[in-house]
Amino acid sequence: MPRLQKNDNFIDKTFTVLADIILKILPTSKEEKKAFYYYRDGMSAQSEGEYAEALEHYYEALLIEEDPYDRSYILYNIGLIYASNGEHVKALEYYHQALELNSKLPQALNNIAVIYHYQGIKAAKQKNINISKSMFEKAAQYWEQAIFLAPNNYIEAQNWLKTTGRINNTNR
After folding, report:
1. I need a surface site. Which of 35, 62, 67, 119 has the fewest CB within 10 A?
2. CB under 8 Å to 108, separation ≥6 — which residues?
3. pTM, full prediction
4. Helices (H), 26-153
């Protein structure tokens, strides 16, 4: 099961060694350890741009992992892969599944907003003003939620909300 890392660097090696030590020390079941190994191998493959391999590892981890919090991060990472491949509908599905399990995942909220914002720009370029407005409003709603959870993050989104008059000051 352990993945051979092609582009090992010091940080990756250190993380792997520390994770292995922690897993040996912590009182976790065999299944929990197996799920973590799949997740870790998925992250490694994803960081190297090996998305198909990463998805295989993440799907294996999902079959085993029972903890909702841990599952939310697996689903989030699957969403990241689909988003980076331009499969925005699939990415949105996985981000929403992640949020169903962990509503305090600002990065998923941000990524949903980014997709809607992109769709809004695309619609505007095609002169679909109503669709564009709708997508921008959805982006604003998700960015407001992300900023509420992580007020010091997403500065560009905060600026966009301010410059477009979409900021909701009741959340602050």
Report:
1. 67
2. 76, 79, 95, 98, 99
3. 0.83
4. 30-47, 51-64, 68-84, 88-101, 106-125, 129-149
